[in-house]
Design a protein that fits this description.
Blueprint lengths: L4 E3 L5 H12 L3 H19 L6 E5 L3 H15 L4 E5 L8 H12 L3 E4 L13 E5 L11 H12 L4 E4 L23 E5 L12 H4 L1 E5 L12 E3 L2 H7 L14 E5 L6 H12 L5 E6 L4 H7 L4 E4 L17 E4 L7 H13 L3 E4 L2 H8 L11 E3 L3 H8 L5 H15 L2 E4 L5 E3 L5 E3 L12 H14 L4 H23 L6 H6 L1 H8 L5
Parallel strand pairs: 2-3, 2-5, 3-4, 5-6, 6-7, 7-8, 9-18, 10-11, 10-13, 11-12, 13-14, 14-15, 15-16
Antiparallel strand pairs: 1-9, 16-17, 17-18
Helix pairs in contact: 2-3, 3-4, 7-15, 8-14, 11-12, 14-15, 15-17
């Protein structure tokens, strides 16, 4: 996919800065000034009222950002003080320069000798510029005390690039009491991987990427953020002479007694996402339900009354999805094994199909390059084993995708799409209102429709998760997050495709 936003590891930040200064023929100080101007612009636009500003600065380049921000806010009319810890090491050159420029502009710098007793002005907003993306070890000593004090105070904290104490990727073994709990984080140019992991939400708060005009197209990375522009460009348009055959024939294997709702939701997701003909293989007990709920679908009734026991005639289909509501009974497990061994085309595995696979790990060898797995966190750990933390889970995700040559969507906030060749795409659409039963079933249907359309599985996964999340974002405007349901999500897919195709909504 083109026009994606790249995400880099924090160990590459220095190389990016060096590349930009060489490419643009500017000094590192001028780049710092540009970043500070952009940060201040974000800050001022989002501050609802005037407040006193306490900028906590370190000795490195993040501290340099802090002093530059303090000066620009001072010049803009804010009441600003800068605070620094006593230091036994020298400051970076750009930090020292911006410290002096702030002082010359009339700024006050206070040395904090007893962090545990530090109290900024009443009603102050704290700007955290103690440590940035270059941090590579846990914070200790006076700096850790200062961070704990910032967290104790009843002040909102705005972090510069990174909440101090948080590593850019892996925070295993980090002292979580020595990480700033930011109200908002304005990070430079691209999000850091740690922002996208659930375990760090309490530290990052609301985050936004501040565009500082850094051009990094020449630098490679395996990590990307999915964007509406990229998805719109990758989404194919049906030709003038398209018909139901050219739009693909999909098979949905779903449902069991008491769980036919999952089959209905998945079917509606597919029908509202462009599948040419949808066949639904469901147990006998679900025939009437499907006929009424999704009359557009072609019914393929299983020989079993209460559960799926086998699927025939697979050669008729362009793509197959299996899992929503099928249960984990022995008959269904045998049917899944047969499906895995006989069908080598595009295959989406979700829900109970993944749970069955986890109960029979010896069957995992039957996965193939046409497979797309869509586990949530617990389902993935049943397949790949327990994870030490969220970053470890990402590594296991990439390892699993590479080992079995499959695509995997790890569902959740910022759903991660892993490819067999080591790329990782993070989804930037969606909201907590989608955390409702049945949302994943709708996604399965969306993915089935795209796969039946003939898209490459990487595009199926990326377009599908983004469009699914986008449906949630559009519904939030109309129903709020509490009022959202999976049924509304399925019905809302049409609005998403209309918008992605460039039509007004």
């Amino acid at each position: 996919m083109k026009k994606l936003n790249k995400i880099y590891s924090t160990k590459h930040v220095g190389a990016i800065d060096e590349y930009v200064t060489d490419y643009e023929k500017i000094s590192s100080w001028h780049l710092m000034e540009r970043a500070a101007e952009a940060w201040v612009s974000f800050f001022e636009e989002r501050m609802e009222e005037e407040a006193k500003i306490a900028v906590v600065c370190g000795d490195g380049n993040n501290g340099g950002d802090g002093y530059a921000i303090a000066r620009l806010l001072l010049e803009s009319g804010w009441e600003v003080e800068a605070f620094a810890l006593p230091s036994e090491r020298s400051r970076s050159g750009d930090c020292e320069k911006n410290r002096e420029l702030f002082r010359k502009a009339g700024g006050k710098i206070v040395e904090v000798k007893r962090p545990a007793k530090w109290i900024p002005e009443e009603g102050a907003v704290i700007v955290d510029a103690l440590f940035g993306a270059g941090l590579n070890r846990a914070v200790t000593g006076a700096a850790a005390e200062m961070i704990r004090r910032m967290n104790e105070l009843p002040c909102r904290v705005y972090a510069v690039d990174m909440p101090s104490g948080l590593m850019g990727e892996d925070n295993a073994g980090n002292d979580r009491t020595a990480i700033v709990r930011a109200y908002r984080t304005f990070t430079f140019q691209f999000p850091k991987i740690s922002f996208l992991l659930p375990e760090n939400a309490e530290f990052v708060g609301e985050w936004e990427a501040v565009d500082i005009g850094v051009e990094t197209d020449a630098l490679e990375t395996p990590w990307y953020a999915l964007t509406e522009e990229a998805v719109r460009e990758a989404l194919p348009r049906p030709g003038v002479f398209a018909h139901k055959g050219t739009n693909g024939r999909g098979l949905l294997v779903a449902g069991s007694r008491g769980m036919m709702g999952a089959a209905v939701l998945a079917a509606k997701g597919a029908l509202h996402s462009g599948v040419g003909v949808l066949h639904c293989h469901v147990p006998g007990c679900g025939g009437d339900v499907m006929q009424v709920a999704v009359p557009e679908a072609v019914l393929d009734l299983d020989g079993g009354e209460a559960c799926v026991s086998g699927v025939e005639g697979l050669e008729r289909y362009d793509a197959v999805a299996v899992g929503p509501g099928i249960g984990r009974g022995e008959e269904t497990a045998v049917a899944l094994k047969r499906l895995l061994t006989e069908w080598k085309g595009r295959l989406i595995l979700d829900a109970d199909a993944l749970n069955i696979l986890a109960e029979h790990p010896e069957w995992i060898v039957h996965l193939h390059e046409g497979c797309l797995l869509t586990p949530h966190v617990k389902e993935f750990e049943r397949l790949a084993g327990k994870c030490a933390n969220d970053f470890d889970r990402l590594n296991k995700l990439l390892t699993f995708a590479a080992q079995y040559r499959v695509h995997v969507v790890l569902k959740g906030a910022y759903s991660a799409v892993a490819t067999p060749d080591g790329r990782l795409y993070f989804n930037m659409s969606g909201n907590p209102g989608m955390a409702k039963g049945g949302s994943g079933d709708v996604l399965t249907g969306v993915l089935l429709a795209l796969a039946a359309n003939g898209l490459e599985m990487e595009d199926v996964a990326c377009i599908g998760v983004f469009a699914h999340g986008m449906a949630g974002d559009l519904l939030r405007e109309e129903h709020g997050m509490r009022g959202m349901t999976a049924g509304l999500l399925a019905e809302g897919m049409g609005r998403v495709w209309s918008k992605l195709e460039g039509n007004e909504i």
